């Protein structure tokens, strides 16, 4: 797939930043802002998906984008902005297995197919070939995706129960799932007009503390789930950091740095800039200027809907409009140079930068 371009290194790159910014939020399409930018990647993406379906990733590194972050870092909202769908939300840990999103452009109407991709059997042993289980019929309406994902995750966590019970049964969470986390994943295959070609994997958030005696969950998520992805030298790490918390206590950064110490394949995304305590803005701006914890491909900043806005059912376009308004009217973001402002918010992040490099 295409190489990742540095956000501010050469004249050609600088010019591309301005070209990639859409003239208005109303012109954006769901998923990546401009599907034409990724048409050349479609054949490579199709090949990568076929390779994943064979299970060859257990023996050969396949380029992937992995989205990582601590709990409540805004990872789900970032995924929703990229994919144009709604993910399940709950207090504490909600994502308990990898969620793979395969986006591709098509001339047909928007469609989402949910598949259970099982690489391990009931005993936790790696299978020679992944078991691909279509989880229900294709979804034609975006407002039905969240429930289907929630049900699919339940089926992944209770592998000895027939998956149809979770697909067609009531919408109640089982009291005690067989497993608290799983490396088997929920695969979302999304296609349609205005959806660009991209594949990435959303991983469970890193846990800082647990209750109820589940102390093993901390290492389980860190080692068995997140590290198993980002340790691959061909994995692009999309690192989410919440501005509402001290940078040093967010374990996702230290884990990314462990496997990518030079920052060559990590893309940083700051979330929740509206939650920065008064007087601490300059610290976070140093990331945007790539002066603190510099990364080869730089840092970005996004503004996501608040909890109240989500409860009220804010739309994707309304969220993007609010985001644009925030960065253009709120200090200190509005005072940045045009080049720096262009890497604040989703337009530039979603059109020009999140690209998997050649391995």
TrEMBL record:
Residues 59-359 form the Dynamin-type G domain. It comes from the Eukaryota. InterPro entries: Dynamin, Dynamin_GTPase, Dynamin_N, G_DYNAMIN_dom, P-loop_NTPase. PROSITE patterns: G_DYNAMIN_2 (PS51718). This is Dynamin-type G domain-containing protein. The lineage of its organism: Eukaryota, Fungi, Dikarya, Basidiomycota, Agaricomycotina.
């Amino acid at each position: 797939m295409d190489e990742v371009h540095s956000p501010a290194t050469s004249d050609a790159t600088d010019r591309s930043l301005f070209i990639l910014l859409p003239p208005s939020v109303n012109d954006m399409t769901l998923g990546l802002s401009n599907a034409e930018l990724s048409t050349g990647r479609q054949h490579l993406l199709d090949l990568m998906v076929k390779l994943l379906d064979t299970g060859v990733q257990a023996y050969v590194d396949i380029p992937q984008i992995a989205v990582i972050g601590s709990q409540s870092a805004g990872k789900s909202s970032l995924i929703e902005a990229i994919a144009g769908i709604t993910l399940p939300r709950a207090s504490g840990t909600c994502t308990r297995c990898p969620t793979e999103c395969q986006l591709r452009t098509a001339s047909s109407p928007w469609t989402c197919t949910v598949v259970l991709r099982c690489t391990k059997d009931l005993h936790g042993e790696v299978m020679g070939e992944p078991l691909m289980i279509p989880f229900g019929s294709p979804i034609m309406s975006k407002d039905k995706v969240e429930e289907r994902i929630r049900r699919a995750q339940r089926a992944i966590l209770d592998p000895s129960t027939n998956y149809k019970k979770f697909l067609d049964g009531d919408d109640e969470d089982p009291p005690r799932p067989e497993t608290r986390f799983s490396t088997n994943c929920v695969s979302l295959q999304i296609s349609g007009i205005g959806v660009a070609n991209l594949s990435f994997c959303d991983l469970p958030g890193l846990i800082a503390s647990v209750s109820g005696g589940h102390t093993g969950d901390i290492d389980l998520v860190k080692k068995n789930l997140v590290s198993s992805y980002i340790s691959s030298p061909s994995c692009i790490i999309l690192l989410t950091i919440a501005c509402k918390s001290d940078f040093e206590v967010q374990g996702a950064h230290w884990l990314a740095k462990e496997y990518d110490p030079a920052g060559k394949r990590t893309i940083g995304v700051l979330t929740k800039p509206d939650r920065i305590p008064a007087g601490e803005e300059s610290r976070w701006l140093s990331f945007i200027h790539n002066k603190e914890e510099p990364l080869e491909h730089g840092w970005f900043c996004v503004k996501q809907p608040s909890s109240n806005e989500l409860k009220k059912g804010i739309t994707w376009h309304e969220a993007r409009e609010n985001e644009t308004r925030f960065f253009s009217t709120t200090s200190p973001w509005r005072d940045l140079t045009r080049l720096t402002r262009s890497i604040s918010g989703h337009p530039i992040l979603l059109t020009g930068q999140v690209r998997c490099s050649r391995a």
